Amino acid sequence: MSVLSFVEVSEGKIKKASVEAAYYGSKVAEGLGTDSVALVLGEASSDELASLGAVGVKKVLHVADAKLNNFDAKAYAKAVSEAAAAASANVVVLSFNQNGKLLAPRVAVRLNAGYVPGAVALPEFNGGTAVVKKNVFSGKASANYQLATENKVIAVNPNSLSPVRGTGTATVEALSLSV
Hints:
The protein is of the alpha/beta class and 179 residues long. It contains four helices and twelve strands.
């Protein structure tokens, strides 16, 4: 079992919101006592990908296909769900940005997973159940979502968690998917 974080790149650089999602995923993995794995679709340098180790990612799965440089929700959902199966991930973390709002529900359906959009705090796990806090009513209140499914998809609100950078580097592995 592991935690898979989907990391978006733009023009070969990792997006800020994706760094936050990777940090969130590494903290969830730390709480579960498992490994944090990141998935990157599209072209990026190996140094850029290895830098995710500074936020706690142990391994980066990289699909360096030029066809994936432009976001397509259907193709990305298939790729993320296949990567989750390849990494034996029960928890998938994404950013709740424009692309994440399109991608996360599709991934949740493909994985038959519970889904929390716009998480603002780290989940609390009790056995196989996770309780995730999110803002509701335009941020005037908060709600706790309980995920009792085996697989879980969590979309993290941008700027809700500040990544603390360390000195680690992640190992980068090429992944071949049929997208």
